Amino acid sequence: MRVSFRIALAGQVIGVSALYEQTRTFCKNYLTDAPASFEVAVTPADIAFEREKNDREAAVEGHAPGNFSDEYLETLALYRKIVERLLEWDTLLFHGSCISVDSKAYLFTAKSGTGKSTHTQLWKKWFGERAVFINDDKPLLKISAQGVTVYGTPWDGKHHRSTNTSCPLKAVCILTRNTENSIQRIDKKAALPMLCQQSYRPCSPIGAQKTLALVDRLGSSVPLYRLGCNMEPEAALVAYHGMNQ
């Protein structure tokens, strides 16, 4: 028997037909009874695709294949189906750690393992209740003429830091490791390779073209920075003050 429910993400309501009850539990903070904007259904073929994809990526990276459950793989298949449809509403999925302070969001991105989550955790320590984790892994960005709004999602990384909320995006910051803390404003041309790399790109030519157009708009809509940090506590203050001059 299939499991049906609806979730609200980035201002849209998605009707979901899943194979496992665990998927509804995974999305529990985003459940809604509102009418659906569109519907998606996960099939066994979708789960098989996710398993094959993970195995291929592990082989390329020289790792043993992950022993992932079908239940976990269904959550991956679900976000893939949803975010490809959300492009119709000028919304893209971005790989980064996003935290808000005083209702303004700051999005940090970098190659995996650089320390995005470690850095935003420093913000939480410094700013306490003023700081709220929007999403620590895969936030949604809705890009409009008025600016960029960032939304939480259930896909929130290994630390499970996220909030079902939305917030105006103040800036995007590319994180790098350094012995000393420093931050500088950069232009779109310098940031674009990383912005493209960290945005979810569909396989379809139309979807990929739409994503690239949205990434270009993102780079024009918010200030862009590069932060060199040593992961000491003061790195959070250097970043915050640098993006609020």
Automatic annotation (TrEMBL):
InterPro entries, alphabetized: P-loop_NTPase
Top-level division of the source organism's lineage: Bacteria
SUPFAM superfamilies documented for this protein: PEP carboxykinase-like (SSF53795)
Protein name listed in UniProt: SynChlorMet cassette protein ScmC
